[in-house]
Amino acid sequence: MAPAGDNVVVSKMKLERMLSMKGGKGEASYVNNSQAQAQHARSMLHLLRETLDGVRLQSPPDFPFVVADLGCSCGSNTIYMVDVIIQHMAKRYEAAGCDPPEFSAFFSDLPSNDFNTLFQLLPPYGGVSMEECLASNNHRSYFAAGVPGSFYYRLFPAKSVDVFYSAFSLHWLSQVPDVVLDKRSTAYNKGRIFIHGASESTATAYKKQFQSDLAGFLRSRSKEMKSGGSMFLVCLGRTCSDPTDQGGAGLLFGTHFQDAWDDLVQEEVVEADGSFIVNKLEVFRGGSPLVVNHPDDAAEIGRALANSCRSVSGVLVDAHIGDQLSDELFSRVAMRATTHAKELLEQLQFFHIVASLSLA
Amino acid sequence: MAPAGDNVVVSKMKLERMLSMKGGKGEASYVNNSQAQAQHARSMLHLLRETLDGVRLQSPPDFPFVVADLGCSCGSNTIYMVDVIIQHMAKRYEAAGCDPPEFSAFFSDLPSNDFNTLFQLLPPYGGVSMEECLASNNHRSYFAAGVPGSFYYRLFPAKSVDVFYSAFSLHWLSQVPDVVLDKRSTAYNKGRIFIHGASESTATAYKKQFQSDLAGFLRSRSKEMKSGGSMFLVCLGRTCSDPTDQGGAGLLFGTHFQDAWDDLVQEEVVEADGSFIVNKLEVFRGGSPLVVNHPDDAAEIGRALANSCRSVSGVLVDAHIGDQLSDELFSRVAMRATTHAKELLEQLQFFHIVASLSLA
């Protein structure tokens, strides 16, 4: 447990080893709190398919067609999206009159991700024997592997991946900028755990961190992507240009989310890197993170907000203040949210930025 | 929990989803009970290196050099062996005056394996930035991925793996043969959980299962191996030709271990498959599975035997009789072993069969 005061004391290396969505299968687990992410991802399927239509079919298909989900977490969303991608590509091969290649999918996240839960959700491989396929109507048609590591560095061999997919992950920075923790710096965030309402210097420090992280991400992917491949990225965005107004995301987490992509991706980092061209960039109203059965039940909304929040930030919070205080914290979050249920349901809207990139 | 009586009631599909070494980091975990496997594996390094010297160097090295450990479990042994293999190959590239390729390692085991523990033992990737390498004297020089699935089926894309390594895993059959559970069959094993001392029909049923499993294993690997690649297999063996005398292994587990390889591999399954040639086949005195600090301390030997046994068979035993009865069972194993400590330490010797195969 970290000392009180400066709350954000996890070093970069430690952050890489511990950050994850909440594992297991409990009430606040990511598995049981990722319905909103599922809905949001599905609402962008037409944009994903557009990106996939631009991917070059390898001919003759001597090598496997390789898909990688970066920041896959441990729920069934990643399996669903990989299925969508592979089925779409298999249809394209069929339509082009080619034999489909073998497909291979890599599920990547930090080493602290609950890969055990993910692997148990994966249907067994059914591509080999007909008995296997027939015995189970729930099989997968691709080879699967989990890749533990930070996507700000290299994860895959050179020129080995056809399609990169990453949704709602690039807002997790590699570290809290050092100056934000330095009491002598103008960027010092006074021990607070969120950027919402912070000073301009603090915002700039986070923006620089994001730029440097995104540059590392793009540099690594540009080496790993096959010629003719594509990358489909979905990020949390803002509608307001002020990074210290975190809008919907601020209401939910009040924690560090990245600067809007429209200026960063388009004008700065991507162009500076020079490896990629932006095929598409779109801000997209993603909807509410709260998926509830009874919109009039304030207590359900309160619980949904607390669980949603804990499923993505709980591992960090537990590490900082311990399990017991964390229980107390999130039960208070639920209580407070219950008293503001109606306005939360109306105002809590996520905006997503969708980017489709290919090698320049 | 399964009903008493017929103890072995786990179906094939269920066995594939649940079999594993004991995960986590407790007293009976595999992580804390795999020192013997480590010693035994290290005693065979010279044979492994011989196999690696026969692997073709790809030139020019456009593609990654790929190593796969099948049945890796979750301890540090697999990381050690993969390091040995990659370092040996890197030296061979250097000695041949070639730039080394990128290296990629796949750690494969059933989906129930504790991949989380394995991934947390993996050092971070240090091949990209010099700072990363310097900041940590404990980094890895290869891309790593975990592959959940049964090695009796396909796990990897065609022609994608240079070196397969598998130690102490192929004795885990894909299922208990149906006839062994069938009261009307002559092969019925009367509800017993081990083959040691069983009838000839029972032994034949297990032998057939092993042959069919091994055939599936070889068929899959022959598709996945790159031309010029090699496979290094280590199995538990017997010195006696009677499969119902399980010798050292019988003393430890009294459970199903496969028929000796010398007739199976050489004369039957490998030749029938036709894809592979056997470069080397050697029976090897592997040593005792008991690693103790005080060979005169009977209680330590008793605990070591019970922990060693539980680390590899505990997951199955827990599933059959529940955690509480399992605790009781293994504490009785420890007590009985304590009273026979001296003779166990002398007689409990494993014999290993080492096979080195390449494509025909």
TrEMBL record, chains A, B:
Molecular function as annotated in GO: methyltransferase activity
Lineage of the source organism? Eukaryota, Viridiplantae, Streptophyta, Embryophyta, Tracheophyta
Cite the Pfam families for this sequence.
Methyltransf_7
The family note in this entry says: Belongs to the methyltransferase superfamily. Type-7 methyltransferase family.
Name of the protein described by the UniProt record = Indole-3-acetate O-methyltransferase 1
Which SUPFAM superfamilies does the entry mention? S-adenosyl-L-methionine-dependent methyltransferases
Q: Which PANTHER family match?
A: S-ADENOSYL-L-METHIONINE:CARBOXYL METHYLTRANSFERASE FAMILY PROTEIN (PTHR31009)
